[in-house]
Specification:
heterodimer, A: mainly alpha, 12 helices, 0% strand, B: two-stranded antiparallel sheet
Chain lengths: 296, 292
């Protein structure tokens, strides 16, 4: 016990100060090489996307490539008013709702599964490989299977039943695997300390684990949201008659060759920036709160 | 007696925790796979109707087709190329963020900077290469202006090159996240100790960083390989119809209602994927990460 206590400052310190910087002083030459690589990576990541954001603000003469022809919001108006671009508003609405539902379920189920997998239990390997299977199975194949299954059972496929399930079969394995990584950084001593102090299982989860793991849970939520919001292959055969946004975009790529498509890219990215801003904000808030309570 | 009782209680608690996961995976993973498996043995009337006969005709068709080998070779080519590029870029980006960025908030900020584009639609991200790679795109315009080429390069878009570019663009994050995670867990004191003991930069990389990031690399590999092998729309759009993979052929089969053939080829692909993933899981025990 005393050994555990003596260890405490050592084990607690990284969690609060979390020194990612390896050392002080002069930067080695590798820093500059890797910084350049990183800069190129970010440039390649954002460059193409910024091209389409810029091109989405062209006027009515606009085309799919540079040079830019005028500036206006024409294609944004076109996106939400033209019939030929499809039901963008409705599918956007559905995708956001679906992503929120998927995120909530993914966080809760992944967290619980993460707790369960910390200890061996009979049949755990079966569940584990079922999850890995769900992850690696080609989405289109699973989607077709789900679609055929609903057909055979006489159920109607829709975005909030079959597509929800199909998306969960995709987001949950990711969520649980991220949870594995998060859990492995969790020091079990804290949980044992909670039990020693007379906490119930629920209390130790609510008062110790969730607060400590909060940043990791936000990461799981981010994963859940992105994967659902972008999900295409598994939804294709399962969404029923009403499209989600990626399905709408897919059909747009086949019959719309105007900057409307780019305007849609710009709009979805704005949503993403809002979501990621909120996530980053909440992580910072959690860390700040933790910092002040450690001091106080 | 005591131990067997605690064992069964642990079993019960374990199952209780994973039961929500099982309740999703059974109807939406196990059942659909069984449906596809069943469909692969059915006969078809050619119009999407399935007759519940037991026949191996679809498998024989798939295995005898010269196209099958071609599709698998193309799929393997895309998978290997994408894996190599995402691994190299992902590893060094994660390494940079963990070991070179000294401010943690900045590291998280830069990390999120890498993830932001992945919040937009895959398809939109793919299409965003058109203004760059296209025949009248920026790269061709720049090369023409510099006088490096006389004709616009047509190989940039709607080619295998474009397919690999789109994959790497989309999937590097799936390497960065798990590798970043495992690298962030490496105790910096270990590296300082190695430096003090006279280890070179290369030794630290070879003996500490790579072995300790193994689980992250394995996870990233599983993500990337399974996504590329299961993909159809990047191949379909970015190759301009010039290339096909196993799943894009499946997509065409489903389009013309050839369910049994499609199902048989899907079953074979799934078996191949299972083999690859279990091989990866054999070299690196991801479960050990949490159960030790």
């Amino acid at each position: 016990m005393s050994a555990v206590l003596a260890d405490m400052p050592e084990t607690v310190a990284p969690a609060t100060t979390k020194a990612i910087a390896p050392s002080r002083g002069q930067r080695p030459w590798t820093f500059y090489v890797l910084a350049t690589l990183f800069a190129f990576y970010v440039l390649a990541l954002y460059g193409p996307m910024f091209c389409i954001y810029i091109l989405s603000f062209q006027d009515i003469r606009g085309g799919l490539v540079f040079p830019m022809k005028g500036t206006s919001l024409h294609w944004f108006v076109d996106l939400f008013t033209q019939v030929r671009t499809g039901d963008v508003k409705g599918s956007f609405d559905r995708s956001i709702k679906l992503a929120i539902i998927v995120t909530a379920i993914t966080v809760v189920v992944s967290f619980l599964a993460g707790l369960g997998f910390r200890r061996r239990f009979r049949g755990d390997t079966v569940v584990f490989y079922m999850m890995i299977g769900s992850l690696v199975a080609p989405g289109l194949v699973l989607g077709l299977g789900t679609g055929l299954l609903f057909q055979a059972l006489g159920l109607n496929a829709s975005w909030y039943t079959s597509a929800l399930g199909a998306q969960l079969s995709w987001t949950l394995p990711f969520g649980v695997l991220v949870m594995f990584a998060v859990m492995s950084r969790f020091n079990q001593v804290w949980e044992e300390a909670a039990y020693d102090l007379g906490a119930s299982r629920w209390q130790s989860i609510r008062l110790v684990m969730i607060p400590v793991l909060a940043p990791g849970l936000v990461a799981v939520a981010l994963f859940g949201f992105t994967l659902s919001y972008d999900e295409f292959a598994r939804s294709l055969q399962t969404a029923g008659s009403l499209n989600t946004l990626p399905l709408e975009i897919w059909s747009m790529t086949l019959n719309v060759t105007s900057p409307s498509l780019y305007a849609l890219g710009t709009v979805t990215t704005i949503v993403s920036f809002i979501v990621i801003g909120a996530s980053l904000g909440s992580i910072v808030l959690i860390q700040k709160k933790r910092g002040s309570s450690t001091k106080g | 007696m005591q131990s067997s009782q605690t064992l069964s209680r642990a079993n019960l608690a374990g199952w209780l925790y994973v039961s929500p996961l099982v309740l999703v995976l059974v109807p939406f993973f196990v059942a659909p796979i069984l449906v596809v498996l069943a469909a692969s043995f059915f006969a078809t009337d050619g119009f999407g109707g399935l007759t519940p006969d037991f026949t191996l005709a679809s498998y024989i068709d798939v295995l005898h087709s010269a196209l099958t080998l071609k599709l698998y070779l193309a799929t393997i080519k895309f998978t290997v190329l994408t894996w190599i590029f995402t691994l190299i870029i992902g590893f060094f980006v994660a390494y940079f963020l963990v070991f070179h960025v000294r401010n943690q908030l900045l590291a998280i900020g830069l990390f999120l900077l890498c993830t932001v584009p992945f919040w937009t639609s895959n398809i939109i991200r793919m299409i965003s290469w058109i203004p760059l790679l296209g025949k009248e795109g920026l790269i061709n315009q720049a090369l023409l202006a510099l006088g490096m080429i006389r004709q616009p390069l047509e190989v940039l878009l709607f080619s295998d090159l474009a397919v690999v570019i789109a994959y790497v663009h989309q999937l590097t994050i799936f390497m960065i996240v798990p590798i970043f995670n495992s690298m962030a867990r490496i105790d910096k004191k270990l590296i300082e100790a190695a430096i003090d003991a006279g280890a070179s930069r290369f030794d630290i990389m070879r003996l500490i960083v790579v072995p300790m990031s193994k689980s992250g690399i394995a996870l990233g590999t599983i993500f990337v390989v399974s996504i590329v092998m299961g993909d159809f729309f990047v191949v379909k759009v970015m190759s301009g119809g010039g290339s096909a993979s196993v799943v894009s052929a499946f997509y065409e089969d489903v389009g013309v209602l050839q369910y049994p053939t499609a199902a048989a080829s899907a079953v074979l692909l799934t078996l191949a994927l299972v083999a690859i993933v279990s091989l990866i899981l054999r070299t690196v025990d991801i479960r050990q990460e949490i159960t030790r």
